[in-house]
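Notes, p. 3: input format for complexes.
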Amino acid sequence: MGHTLFGALGLFSLNILLYCGHAQDVPQPVLTVSPSWTSPGDSVTLTCSVEPPSAGWRFFWYKAVPDMSSTYNYYTFKLLAGGTTGTEQDSYILHGQTHTAGYKCRAGRGDPVSYTQYSGVKFVWSGGVNPAASLTVSPHRLQHFSTESLSLICEGNSTEWRVMKVDEDGYVSSCSYWGEMTGSTCNTTRASSGVYWCESETQFSNAANITIHRGDVILVSPVRPVTEGHSVTLGCKLRTENLLYNVDFYKNNTLIPNPARGELLISAVTKSDEGFYKCRGRKSPQGLETSAESWLSVKCEYEF
Ligand SMILES: *[C@@H]1O[C@H](CO)[C@@H](O)[C@H](O)[C@H]1NC(C)=O
Ligand SMILES: *[C@@H]1O[C@H](CO)[C@@H](O)[C@H](O)[C@H]1NC(C)=O
Ligand SMILES: *[C@@H]1O[C@H](CO)[C@@H](O)[C@H](O)[C@H]1NC(C)=O
Ligand SMILES: *[C@@H]1O[C@H](CO)[C@@H](O)[C@H](O)[C@H]1NC(C)=O
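Output follows (304 residues plus 2-acetamido-2-deoxy-beta-D-glucopyranose):
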C-alpha cells in the first residue's frame, strides 16, 4: 500500500518535472558515428537522427572539449567550423580523423530557431598512439580478471590528466568514480568492461577496449595496434596459473590451426589478421574454459 502511494507520487512529480523542464515534447536526437574506431586518415561519418523525421530541420555539430574543472559534465561543446547556420544534411563527414574525439549534435528549425535537445556524446576512438597523449594499461593486455587491480597510466604533453571510460551502456565516467587518480595514474580494483582513454585540457589519448572477465580464462593480447610486418604473440591465461599449455585459439569463432600449444605466434601480421580472437583451455580444471573475445588491430607501417 505504502509503496503504491509512493510510486504514484513519484510518477506524478516526475511528470511535473518533465513538463516544467519542457523536456516532454522536445525531441532528443540520436548521434551515431561510423566507424567508431579509426586509423589515421580515415573519414568518419556522424549521423544525427531525429524522431519522428520530418523536413525542415537543420543540424548542428559540436566537438567535446575536456573541462578539467568539471567532475560531472566533463566537457564543454564547441560548434564545428562553419556550423553556425547548421547543415541541411543529417550527416557530417570528418575527413582525416586521427585521434580520439567526442561529438554531439542537435537539430533546429524555424526563425527564430527552436532547437531539439542535444544528443548524448559519442566518441570516435583511435587505438594508435598520439605522442602528445598516450594511455598505457598495466598489466599490459586488453583482458583482465575481475579480481585483478589495474593501472591506467597517462603520458604526454600535459601535467593534468584524467582517465575516462565509456561502459557497455554508453555511460561516460571518470576514474574518480571507480578508481583513484594519483598524478597521471588511475589505479582501480573496480574496473568494468568498456573503452578507456586519457584526456587533458587539449588532448585525447589512444583508447583501449578493455574486457573485465568473471571467468577463469583470459586472452593475452596487445593493447595497441600491431604494425604490419611485425610479429605478435597471443597467450591464454588461467586465473590461478600463468600461461596455459594446452590451448586453442579462435579467430572470428573459427579454430586456428596452431602447432604451438601454449601460444599463438603470428610472425608477420597483415591486415587480414585483424579480427576477434579468443582462446580456450583444453585442460583447465573445469574442463573447457573459454575467454572473452578481443579485437586484434593492425596498423599500416607508415602510421605512427
Ligand atoms: C606540447 O605542448 C607545447 C606547448 O603547448 C607545444 O608547443 C608542443 O608542440 C606540444 N608537443 C606535442 C608533441 O604535441
Ligand atoms: C598503482 O598500482 C601499481 C601496481 O599495483 C603500483 O605500483 C602503484 O604504486 C600504484 N600507484 C598508486 C598511486 O597507488
Ligand atoms: C572477422 O570479423 C570482423 C568483424 O566482423 C571482420 O571485419 C573481419 O574481416 C573478419 N575477419 C575474417 C578473417 O573473417
Ligand atoms: C569492445 O569489445 C567487445 C568484445 O570484443 C565488443 O563486443 C564491443 O563491441 C567492443 N566495443 C567497442 C566500442 O568497440
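Residues 59 and 74 are 23 Å apart (CA to CA).
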